[in-house]
Amino acid sequence: MSDDAVWDGVIMDAMDLVKNEVLGLGVGENFTTLDDFDMALARPYARSMRLNGKPTCLRLEHIYWQLLRYVALHTGRSESVLLADLDREVQMRFGQVKNFSSLVRVVSVAQVIKACPGLLSR
Fold it and tell me: What is the pTM of this model?
């Protein structure tokens, strides 16, 4: 299964999760201040895992681990299998990635933007 198919299959449900559960915002509300922002979402966590047979340590902020957990749950895979699939797909298409943690963040944000047309034009 391609990387795009994995993300596309669950992204609309993930958007509701992001708006309601992860960020603590009601759907349709605008986030304009840090008053209600949970700083725990920005706290980084490192996890050791094997990606396609290679031991690695991935350090991501809590919000990205939550998004990965949600996508993994809805695709019937573990987070490590989901990340290994992403790693393999990217290597096949583009070659080695220098900073996999950054790639995971960018892919996550890109999928959120893709699911919310006009998000950046507001």
Answer: 0.69
